[in-house]
Amino acid sequence: MSNDPASAATQAMPAAPAAADVPAWKLLAILGGGGAVAGMIIVSAYQWSKPTIDENKRVRLDAAVREVLKGPERCDSLWLVGDALTPTLPAGADAATTDRVFIGFRKDGTRAGFAIVAADFGFADEVKLIFGFDAEAGKVLGFKVLGSKETPGLGDGIEKNEAFVKEFDGVATPIAGVKKGSSRGAPDHEVDTITGATISSKTVIRIINGAVEKWQPKLRAYRGEGAR
Amino acid sequence: MSATARDDLIRGVWRENPVLVTTLGLCPTLAVTNTVANCVAMGLATFFVLVASCYLVALVAKWIPGEIRITAFVLIIATFVTVADMAIEALAPDVHKALGAFIALIVVNCIILGRQEAFASKNPVLNSVADAAGAGIGFMVTMLMMGTVREVIGNGTLLGHRVLPASYEPWVVMMLPPGGFLTLGTILLLIKWKKVRKPAVADAPAPAAAASGAVSGGSAA
User: Fold this and answer.
1) Model confidence over B26-80: pLDDT tens digits?
2) How far apart (Å, rounded) are the C-alpha atoms in residues A205 and B194?
3) Please, are residues A177 and A202 in contact by the beta-carbon 8 Å criterion?
4) Chain A within 8 Å of B101 (Cβ-Cβ)?
């Protein structure tokens, strides 16, 4: 290995102090030792930060569930095992890879609705959102964007434009996006898209419609607590 | 602090400002300067990695053979960046979300490798830390210049607080990537213009810089 490509790549002016004829085993030992130390440091940092990171995620998700279910008394997770939902994760299943939805209950024990996390590609990268859903009535209770990189000032209106977000409160599925003021005769199912952010608006609608299609039969079939 | 260490510190802030004079580290400068809060977070993260890794490099440089020095430097930088990345995700998840991949990309920030290769690897620890701190502050100052202009014009806010009247229609383009190029171009133009107006003083290469082997500034800008 010569010094030339390295110093050309970094445009450093003088070459580093020349260390002539260092045996290869020494180079390997130094890099290997340094790598091992660096690895140890990173592993320690990972183990130190992981519980906090997981806790942050859990708190954020829990707050989002409560928000889209409009403040239920309490919430539970439902796991998808095979084709049916169950409130307990079966032994041996991995919580991180098992599909789940959240169910919220009112004070009197009736169901406030289900909260579903879903994602799809928007105008820029993935849009991930959670929405509250009344499976019997087929109505959306509300939604919240969990993560998106939509254009600031235009596409991020799906998070920041309150009028747009409010339109989803109580809209019937399947949802159709329409231009502001131009109804196609089914106002229950219609949401006004944001001017200048049609693609982002329609992404939200597509994500919710897709998730409803996937989940509604399973949610309706769920006979657990609070079933009518 | 000795006079040379103080000079090492001040040099990076303005006379050899890493962004404005040596035009290094442009990727984060253009990408995350759309709000002042992002600039502060990115500036602090870079400052931490820069100072910590230059300290370590200055400490161990004499045991690192020249053939593998770049590899070793990158290893040191990458370790600090990974730790910083995890710490920010644990302690300030909102900041982590806003900065996204750019924290991890501090690894390849040329300011850091540049300071190690040009300075920390052949200077005493104190001077290396001062030099790194100067470059880190210089980077942060430039980011804040950009971020202030872009957030105020592009969103009508400063640190999230509205500073322009509600009737002001924000120039969204300033928040988008082109706004970064426009702002940086304008700032570089103004500085160059000022330099040309009083030539002899500013354009002469600083003797201390030449002696220490730092990337010489005047001609690169």
Assistant:
1) 888 888 888 888 888 889 989 999 999 999 999 988 888 888 888 999 999 999 9
2) 53
3) yes
4) no
What are the pLDDT digits (tens) for B151-177? 999 888 888 788 888 888 888 888 888
- Kindly state whether residue A8 falls inside one of the protein's structural domains: no
CB pair distance less than 8 Å for B83 and A15: no
Residues 6+ positions from B221 with CB-CB distance below 8 Å? B20, B21, B22, B23, B188, B191, B192, B195
Query: Number of structural domains, chain A?
Result: 1
Domain span including residue A179: 52-221
| pTM of the full structure | 0.71
What interface predicted TM-score (ipTM) does this complex get? Answer: 0.71
B135: its two tokens? 């470059």
Closest by CA position to A107, among listed A134, A142, A74, A62: A74
Tokens 């970094």 map to which residue? A10
Return the structure tokens found at B114: 């540049």
Rounded CA separation B191/B194 (Å): 5
Do A41 and B89 count as a contact with CB atoms less than 8 A apart?
no
CA–CA dist A91, A93 (Å, integer) = 6
DSSP one-letter string for B89-141: HHH-HHHHHHHGGGTGGGGG-HHHHHHHHHTGGGS-HHHHHHHHHHHHHHHHH
CB contact under 8 A, B114 and A12: yes
